[in-house]
Amino acid sequence: MRKIEFSDIIPYNEYLKVRKEFQDKIIKLKKNRRVQVGEYITFVFENRETVLYQIQEMIRLEKMTDEKLIKNEIEVFNHLIPDENELCATMLIEIFERHLIKPILNSLIGIQNKTIFLEFDDEKITPVFYEENLPEGKISAVQYVRFIFNQNQINKFIDPKIPAKLLINHTNYKAETILNENVRMSLIEDLIKK
Fold it and tell me: Under DSSP, is residue 124 helix (H, G, I), strand (E, B) or coil?
């Protein structure tokens, strides 16, 4: 999937004029890219459009007009766009009860250590987590993951007759969700897009 370039960015003042339309399009798109697994964890699968939106929103929030700063944002966010044979997702640990945030996050330490799987047919893909510089024994509520496929796995995954699910098998959190047809078709499109 092609990465974002500076020429793809809508300048700050122009973006303000088209933001509502752009936002509506992304909200609709993300409905078919969001997978909740259990009570607290959601995966939002990213593609070029969702990442461009995040960059545009960052530019809007920061009122950025400096080309160098914008190029820096592009560089930071481009890692969320899947490379060939990959799916990328933002993993959100969403805890809405304030008093539960710290205990639940602490109970999920180690979740990045081979406890999450994309499973279909006889295949089990463990995601690669984007490296964070967190102190030992800490966890972030927002993490970035890559599911890397070989060609055989792609051939199986793009067959909609073969069910696929996201599965978490952590000591303190066990859940799974079968990917619905709309999500599956969005992800298949990502995998076959060059």
Answer: strand
